[in-house]
Amino acid sequence: MFERFTKDARAVVEGAVGHAEREGAARVEETHVLLSLLDREGSRGSFALASLGLPPGGRTALLRDLDETRRRGGLSRADADALSGLGIDLTEIVSRVEETHGEGALAAAGRSGLLGGRTGRRPFARGAKELLTGTLRVAVAHGERRIGDEHLLLALTVRRGVPSEVLADHGVTHASLTRVLYGEQDRGGRPGTGTGPQAEAS
């Protein structure tokens, strides 16, 4: 399948591995793929994000929301709201944990200890593997043979979890991305002509 990835899509995957390594994470997660997508410039995925109000260099609020989610141990804003409805103040819990164990203690819980100078590539977590597989279905659904970074972004938005929730909070949904990338659907359900840079052929 990876031979069908464009240069931009391959760069996103490599960037996700880099994010995981710098963070000291045991595995490459979907959040690392999102962080790598946010790093990109001049690609179809980057164009789509900019068209939806998230230009390169202007993604600070989204990154802040991702950091807050990590600080809560991976619980999204929706999770926090649901717990609040049960009388559980997640902010208070996070504060107490950080008082005892230090700032970012819950975020660090999913990281591996690198005290031995661990080297080597991080494996992909199950969710990240499923995301990569899902990009093929997204590309095929739009009649495209190559898998670009825009397909990674689209695949992220249809998966349940923190990346899609944080993106949706900033107006980036599957529907909005499809509209930006492919325009209106024709009567046969096939994508119309979108705007923006074309996917790379290699």
Automatic annotation (TrEMBL):
InterPro entries: Clp_N_dom_sf (IPR036628), Clp_R_N (IPR004176). Residues 182-202 are annotated as: Disordered. Keywords: Repeat. The keyword Amino-acid biosynthesis does not apply. Residues 2-189 form the Clp R domain. This is Peptidase.
